[in-house]
Design goal:
Structural class: alpha+beta
Helix content: 25-40%
Radius of gyration: 28 Å
Distance between the termini: 88 Å
Shape: elongated
Largest sheet: 4 strands, antiparallel
Number of strands: 4
Order of helices and strands: EHEEHEHH
Number of helices: 4
Strand order of the largest sheet: 2-3-1-4
Amino acid sequence: MPFYENVFIARQDVTTAQVEGLTELFAGIITAQGGNVTKKEYWGLKSLSYRVRKNRKGHYTLLNIDAPAAAVIEMERQMRIHEDVLRQLTVRVDELEEGPSAMMQSKGGRDRDDRGDRGDRGPRDRDRGPREDRGPRGDRDDRFRSSRGPRPEAAASSEGASE
């Protein structure tokens, strides 16, 4: 059977127990159709990027599913009908992840190479040296300065040209 990952967002004003009830309801639909839900993760109440049906936050839940396509289609249909589900997304995957998802891992356990690490920002900043060693505008040369007056080398070349 194919593997799927489903994430759904429930309204902010439902309780955590009601969200767990929704998770059990959708898992029951999958098992009734001959599938299996291998993992259920409640990610918590998180802020949405934009308002969805007058909600600024939502309860996020992940389901890892091993089921036929008909079972997943029926679960998605039930999610669209249910008034407490704001959004849902189902993706077919090659294999299901073992262990906790990236959302459930502690921040200290993640790789520090991703965005969010404010440490070393790359080779360009390392090579420039301390800020006081650079001029007021960093490593930029004169061609980037404002053109309010003649540049020093332009003034020197115009004096040499008049002779």
